[in-house]
Write the structure tokens for this entry.
Amino acid sequence: MPDRPVHVDKFGGTSVATPERVRRVVEIVAGGVGEGPRGEGAGRRVVVTSAFGGVTDRLLDAVEAAVGRTGAHREILAALRARHADALAALAPESERDALGRALDTLFVELGELLYGMYLLRECTPRFRDAIVSAGERAAVPLVAAAFRAAGHAAVALDATAFVRTDDAFGEAAPDLPETRRLARAALAAVPADAVAVVTGFVGSTADGVTTTLGRSGSDYTATLLAGALDAAACVIWTDVDGVLSADPRVVPEAFPLEHLSYAEAAELAHFGAKVLHPRTMRPLVRAGIPLQIKNTLRPEAPGTRVGPAPPGAEPSIRAVTAIRGAALVRVEGAAVLDVADLGRRVLAPLADGGVPVSLVAQASAEGSFGLAVREADADAAVRLLSRALAREVERGDVFGVRAEGGGAVVAAVGSGMHGATGLAGRFFHTLARAHVPVRAVAQGGGDHTISAVVADADAARAVGALHEAFALRRLRAHVVVVGAGALGRRVLALLGAESERLRAGGLHLVLAGVADSRRLAWEPDGLHPAQALDALDALAAAPPAPGVLDALTDRLAAARLERLVVVDATPSADVAARHAAWLAGGAAVVTPNKEAAGRSAAAWGEVQRAARDAEAPYLYEAAVGAGLGVVARLRDLVRTGDRVLRVEGVLSGTLAFVMNRMRDGAAFSAAVAAARDAGLTEPDVRDDLSGRDAARKLALLAREVGLDVAAADVAVEGLAPPALADVPLAAFWDRLPEADADWQDRPAPPRPPASGAEISAPDDAPGRGGELQYVARLDADGSIRAGVEAVAPGSPFAGLQGAEIAVAVWTERGGPRPLVLRGPGASADVTAAVVLADVVRAAEAMR
């Protein structure tokens, strides 16, 4: 028995790849990084090390060259000998170099003889292969031990072949745990208490003393075998990453180290392809409850991942997502009424006997059919083994046949408490559906740590990314495409860039997948940075204009298979509005302030609404009316809850409100219109504002929200531009606009509309006159809709508006004589962009 607690550290090939890194290993172990102080009296220290980085691969290259009789094995061996000689000179105390050099010479002479024998025989048996590939560890360990001594720390090099006892399954030998325990404890007892025991990883030996290797991640296995045999206080595996990550960082750049894993979670992650651990690594630790820590040699201060017993009372969760790529789904298809006794055993036993590992089993009990996920390289062998085992059932017709579908991947979500977590499996598959990933087979293991599915290998990265976002990061991911690169589109992009981090911290990840204008489409499904999106678009503008941009965009949206796709129409274009129905029918949400959508016919409007309902895709246009006042949502909520809207009145155009307010303050009509243009409040052709069509489209949209079947063309509109200037060029319009100033100066204020019991009004102060002017849109429940200049009394909701401020008053049956009044800033580009982004967030959350 060790007289003090034992700490086992294992360092992989990257951790000992250079003399500088070996010296860093010495500092880490001597300094006690990872598991408390390692100074005098702190505990016994066991260091398991792999071969120097890349050496094992070069030894395998030498074997291949020798068997192939290329002669290259000699050059490989010479280069490896030179590398170790350089390491010897850099690491060992001068007094030890001769003896260590002679030992290395002996080792490499033996290697040369083995390789020469393979060269002559043109073959390499598993036994000889183990003897050669184990040489990397046997060459490295004496040098690592010497590096400890050179730094002033006592150290002893130990060859694990003396105490890791295995069977003779060369290449993947199985250890004899009781015998290994007995021999390892005796070996450590012989090491001075103050000395570091530096042990070869990966290697063992049979009872007859023949060298074996432990297979993939064999050095990790050596470390945990010794930790278990020595009843260690802890075992630390040092590697080149900060712990076990929540996903493969090559697939998910936002993957992060997991602070803690249970043994079962770690084993499941290893089984499904996590590279840091091998499934068998934890086995020697579980029974004794010895904690395992995964840490980064290059960043020893990072906390790493601690693997140990499951903490009590842990909440059910999915914590990590991984995938086995290059899989095949082998299907055993049975008849509808199947009478094959013990089919499960008869399907799985031949694969086990044939050495074909199975990563997923799915069974359709009603038909007696099985789906088995195996490595694609094993698919033909699996079909052959199963066809032979079930030949009688196939002949009888109880089993239709055995076939393999290649090109698959097994995607697994790993966590705990999955059996007791309501809806967790549903969310798993809903997430894959949202990511447009078809599922070929599914399984939830007998334990409660894994849900897995077979998908196409081409979809594996998308599946892992979507599941990781939904579960490990616990946030929604939505892809946004902005159509329109004018003033509004640019502000939407700027706001998206400014707010994306805050939204992400709140659980919503918005990925800008594309930006389009009338001539170009910049498309990047993995994400454009909002600040650089316009540069990408501008770069395309140097080429000749591409025809059919909207067609190209529609095709991209249909083929992209992006989860939670939201299209922002930031244009005033009728052509873009005409695409809304197709985008919605394809499953994309549409967010827009484009009033041309409401200006289309009632039939076209109905088609868009049906497409949104059928595809369950949000269609949001809050910014089309009332900017940030929430007018559309308030009207919709009133109607949905059974209230009846009697009347809507409003100053709906911030531009016209600005003009009217400037004239109220003494400005001439032409000067007020020019000021609105300079403030960025007008359309490129200001006559679109002055015509009243903008107010008509807004009023038509509100009418549709309250259930009236009307279009913008049905609105009786008063225009403000002089008819004589309607068709002149825009430059001439601005030159001649002052001609209208005199008409406005001499124009009497129009009468206020007659008061009603459902109207706020002040007593008339003069017959035929009504105070200040505003451009007011009115909608009555009988379908009467109109918009024009009116006089508003001091008590009106529309009196005293400032700048581009707007206001809306709504009378309902429930509200009685007093209206609901909404008042606030008009639709500047900044306000509209904010409302658009809010609708994007609502759309993404509605697609949860």
